[in-house]
Amino acid sequence: MRKIYPDLIMIDGGDMGESIHGPTVWKSAELFKTMRSLGYDAIGLGERDLAPAFFEEISQSGAKETLLSGNYKPAVAIGAAPVRLIQRKSARVGVVEVVSSFFQQGQSLEPKDPKTFLQQQLEAMQQQKAEVMVVIYHGPANEALALRPSFPGVDLWLISHGVYQPMAQVPTSDGGVLVVGPGDRGREVGLITLEKNRKGVARSAKFHQIILDDRIPDSPKAAPIQERFLKRSQTAVGQSSVTPPPEPARNGFAAHDNPFVGSEVCRLCHEEIYNKWRETKHAHALETLVTKKQSTNPECLPCHSVGFGEQTGYTIKENQPYLVAVGCEMCHGRSGYHVRADDQTNNFSKTTEATCLRCHNKENSPKFVYAEYVKHVH
Can you tell me whether residue 225 is helix, strand or coil? Predict the structure, then answer.
């Protein structure tokens, strides 16, 4: 991309992680370092990135010059700046992030309201002779649209709080300055071109969505980055070498008394249903991870195997071909006791729409319609 557009500037708006608590807190720092190694010029923060471990790791790595502090006090404390000035041959570009009061967590935000904070930072940009001004707004789109008329000098608004929708241009009633919405977990990037005349008056602003699908080949440079990420993921989330904690009894049976046994065992009595299932995408769920080199990713396996992370469920290290794919027990529950009782005991949970929504949620399956999808199960 840089070869085609030598003045390219790469920006990300934050929410790199998933949570500031629990086993995934490491993600923000790891993804930040990855984006920095890819040459990103300015990276903002979201409320999911505010783990103390993130700021500790970033401050030690010496990467804080790429980080936009916004009005987050923890980022200011490690020396990150609210504004980043980026010089290109064609223009001097200023980027600032402002965070909505909606995301106030304790005392994490500066006491100034976002509008006052933004006013001060834009004035600082002008004093530093920024020719193009970009605002990353981490908050609801309606708030950014309401702020926009107060700052006519801004050339581009980027809304960075995701709602699991593809990146797109946000419609505006006046057709004025370009506003672009957030992307969907890195599944696409936006290419935005801004043009001004010699007097600094905007001539055009265009947004183009680039979907990162199979039509774009993987870069050889990405392989070691992905491998590093997966290794850390396996360690942090809980690899198969770590014994899952004891589970509470379900339907009257403890996990060790009612193990997962695999769909092949179900086939012995339910062959017609099994054969129909074999033709579905559920039966090949792990194959999609193998194709994408994600078959050892602990974050994907809970929805592509049987019982990952649970006692007697699928693990990464052990050879368990009977637990690959989305098998019978993923929806109906463990069947070990049912099999031992020779079909005399029905200990299964009732399968409902809620069963499907554990994996087919808004994040992973935004087009999911239960009434339609359930027809293709078996």
Answer: helix
